[in-house]
Amino acid sequence: MRAAAIEHTNLTTFILNTAIEAAQSAIDRAERISLSETDTLKVLALLGNPPSPNEKLLAAAKALPKE
User: Which domain of life is it from (predicted)?
Assistant: First the structure.
């Protein structure tokens, strides 16, 4: 009750807002990938200079349905 008063809100609103913030934080942790600086540089290098497709990738591309 004291925390709700400090925030100038009622207890129900305080609890609801706290639960929403916790839910958003949980979703962010589950959906966001954090890379180290080294890994980030590797990903950027691969995006800038991708390797040639191998046999499996070419076969998978050919197996895709035609539009």
Answer: Bacteria
- pLDDT digits over 15-54, tens only? 999 999 999 999 999 999 999 999 999 999 999 999 999 9
Alpha carbon distance 9, 26 (integer Å): 24
Instruction: Indicate if the pLDDT at residue 66 is higher than 90.
Output: no
Which conformational region is residue 36 in: left (phi greater than 0), alpha (psi within -120 to 50 degrees), or beta? beta
Our count of domains for the chain comes to 1
Helices (H), 1-54: 2-6, 11-31, 37-48
**Which residue range is the domain that position 27 belongs to?**
2-63
What is the rounded average pLDDT of the residues 50-59? 96
